[in-house]
Amino acid sequence: MDGWLGWGIIGSPNSNRPLRTARAGQTGTELLTEIRASVALTFPMWPGITLLEMAALDDVLPEFHFRERHSTRVEASPERVFDAVRSVTLAEMPVARMLMRMRGMQAATNRPVLQEAMRGFTLLADDPGRELVIGSVAQPWRLRGGRRPEPGTDFLEFRDPGYAKMAMSFRLNGAMLTTETRVLLTDGRARRRFRAYWLVIRPFSGLVRRVWLRAIVRRAELVPGGQGP
């Protein structure tokens, strides 16, 4: 099914937050930098977190209507972590396979989950050992994602009404691996439709992402010979 995993994962934000707004003339990235600076001044010794370090996701989709984030600790090198992000398969995620069968979905269990998710999505940023961001512009509340923009459309500049701009990242900060999803709707009607879609898809997609993270950690922490770290 085209883009089955991508639509499921993107469509489950658990925070319905107002669109972030900036002062006149201030860009979204400048606003996020200002927020980080304020937090860093308040909590200058926050352990293990580099608050002033901008994420690639902030450049790709600094403004959003919906957002969800899941994190877990992983004891492995950045190279092993992102190799696991790219290579973990559905065969390592039995809960996800069961949920797919319940929804009548089919997908190859021996193919990387990220590869399946990329059907209908585009690689937007790849910072080796730190962050990977994929995204799509579509109408996930419609069958097979609805209408799509013309090939080659600039993700950052796209503003046509009736669409969802969706981005998902995997980011490693020290020993903390985080997957974050942001969704920006291009008009009020699209926002209402996405909210209804989210109410249906949320339990499935949120669980899939948590299972995905656990599978990544298991693979990343596995050393040659089949023993853990």
Q: Tell me the series of helices and strands, N- to C-terminal.
A: HEHHEHHHEEEEH
- Described by the principal axes of the CA atoms, the overall outline is globular
Instruction: Report the strand count.
Output: 6
Kindly name the structural category. Answer: alpha+beta
Report on the biggest sheet: 6 strands, antiparallel
As laid out across the biggest beta sheet, the strand order is: 1-2-6-5-4-3
- Poorly predicted runs are 11-24, 35-52
Descriptive overview:
The chain has seven helices and six strands, in the order αβααβαααββββα. By secondary structure, it is of the alpha+beta class. The protein has a six-stranded antiparallel sheet. Helix 1 crosses helix 7 (188-221) and helix 4 (78-87) crosses helix 7. Helix content is 37%, strand content 19%. It has helices spanning 4-10, 28-42, 56-60, 78-87, 94-102, 113-117, 188-221; strands at residues 15-16, 66-73, 122-127, 131-138, 164-173, 176-185. It is globular, with a radius of gyration of 18 Å.
Blueprint (SSEs and pairs):
Elements lengths: L3 H7 L4 E2 L11 H15 L13 H5 L5 E8 L4 H10 L6 H9 L10 H5 L4 E6 L3 E8 L25 E10 L2 E10 L2 H34 L8
Antiparallel strand pairs: 1-2, 2-6, 3-4, 4-5, 5-6
Give a brief description:
It is built from seven helices and six strands, in the order H-E-H-H-E-H-H-H-E-E-E-E-H. The chain has helices at 4-10, 28-42, 56-60, 78-87, 94-102, 113-117, 188-221; strands spanning 15-16, 66-73, 122-127, 131-138, 164-173, 176-185.
Characteristics:
about 35% helix, about 230 residues
